[in-house]
Specification:
alpha+beta
Length: 273
Amino acid sequence: MPTEGFGTLILAPQLAQLTRRHPHLSVDLLALPRMVNLSRREADIVISLERPTRGSVIVSKLSDYTLYLYGQREYLARKPLVATPEDLRHHDFVSYVDDLLFTKELQFLDALHRPERFAFRSTSITAQYEAVRAGAGLAVLPAFLADRDPVLARVLPQQGRFTRTFWMSMPSEAKHFARMQVTWAFLREAVAAQHGLLLAGQRCGKAVELRGAAVSVGPGQRQLHPEAAALAGLALHARCCHPCLRPAACTARGPGRHPRKPALQNRRPARTA
């Protein structure tokens, strides 16, 4: 699940900055190796590997990211040289549990080599990374996770290169809530600042800044994606506990809507894609 590594390494440090800037905003980051059922109100904002195609929903492309085939250097030194995809038959592999795979976007090895057996499998990309690091075999890992580790090396960097996309979505009716606008805009900006890291595993030094001064984060009911179908990926809840910012027409879970757009000083309209 690349979204686990994405949420842990990329988003968590940035979301900490968001909550420092807005002390009354509470963010739950759910990095789940399963389908996120939005019809059951499991999330406010979803980051997935597949673009939603149904429902009244706002969708934005966050970023492409790159993955490569990796192996531990000591493992590669004691195993036969890998010069072509055919040479992979001499190697062990680490991957996902096929029966628990929640999206076709995580199917990599079939396009490169179909292993006869796997030395280790897990629903967690972090567990796969640690297994490869310990010398269990080869695995396709996100570059932003593996390139930072000097113990690992790319294998067949041309043929063993894959690109996937992170998509962000939220229900159209939630776009006027200030808490959603702030969180949505911040996520887009935070990910854009890490573009180089996501595509090639290179550190990006650009700091993420929230644009506009004195942003008031309003609450609003916990509204979610209206689509009955499930999406796989990261789920985020954005809530505000400041009592003076709660509109009378809204409750924590109630169906009412804010009678007017929440006030934001120096607010720019939320961009959609």
